[in-house]
Amino acid sequence: MSKIEIGWTDKPTMNPRTREIVGLWNEEFFQDHCARHVKIHILRLTDLADGLANQDLRIPDWNMPAVLPMDNEAFGSYLPYIAAVNFSFTDPKKPHARFRVEDETGVYGGSQAMCRCFYRRFKNRRIKADSIANMMTTEHSARSFFQGDTLIPLLHYRIRYLQEVARNMKAKFDDNWKNLFEAGRWRAFGDSDHLGIVDLLEMEFPKSFGMDRFFHSDELRANYPLRFAKRAQLWLMIYQGRALANPGKLRPLEDGELLGPIADSAIPNALRACEVLAYDRELTEQIDSQIELVPHGTEVKEIRMATVAAMQKLLERINLKRLGPGKPPTSMLALDNALWRLGRNLAKPAHLARTTDY
Fold first, then answer.
1. How far is CA 242 from CA 18, 20, 183, 247, 325, in A?
2. What is the pLDDT of residue 83?
3. Which of 193, 199, 263, 310 has a CA-to-CA distance to 341 between 20 and 30 Å?
4. Share of the chain residues as helix, strand and coil, in percent rounded to the nearest 5
5. Distances 281 to 253, 286, 287 between C-alpha atoms, Å
6. Are the beta carbons of 304 and 35 closer than 8 angstroms?
């Protein structure tokens, strides 16, 4: 997959969800009384940022033959569905098999294997909501659609989410992703007067895109929202990468530079390998032994919060370092891609949780 490079003249700022998470993580009270399992090693973060500042970080263009359509209109129609089921491709049950598809075109694993299932059915054609609804009527038909060398985990959730996306795309947006983007004014994030696309995804598709959040309570606050919105943001990050690579063919989002960071399992795995994230002994042993973590437990909450805070700090440090030699700033989309690829190709495993969040 080829890539493009992009920079913004103005320094990117945090989106509202990232600002909430980073703000809480950086609070002295939270660090002293709540962050018990995960810490950010600032010196290691600085070292990593200084090294990345000299690298050619690029935003992927998502041109992936046999996995995603080259036709841009068809590509746009794929995204609601592949984003809705982009989670948990490693079975949390032993022996922790990873979803895999092998056919005459190649061998695919994880999210690429999932995308390959869509492509072998629809090729370069637009996906219609009725087609998805018809294929997800029974577990047997869904299992046939996601046929691979290994079973895809959490199939019943994927059926439920695809049914909801198909139903609501048709009923609320006339089965056209552009109508959704128009409703969000081609902006990922809203303001006090208007909803952005991420807001609409959480509101109009509550099961598929609206459940990736925690609520934190302590002595100073009650039910403080931690809105990660991994799959909603991933949809738009994939779209933005293709749009930037095809000027004049796909309209870019107005605030695409605000997307991310993504709090999944691969990126904290990369940050841990680089010694930016430090886990306590018990959590380290659980992850290394591939013991399932509680999906919305304290450990997972801290891993994801620390990932967001560390990635935001990395981006700031990288762009500060690039300012001296007069290099253009990089973006979270490029940094996310670099760390995600590193985290997916490490010998040490990422943390396991039975979750549809990521």
1. 23, 28, 21, 9, 29
2. 98
3. 199
4. 50, 10, 40
5. 43, 9, 10
6. no
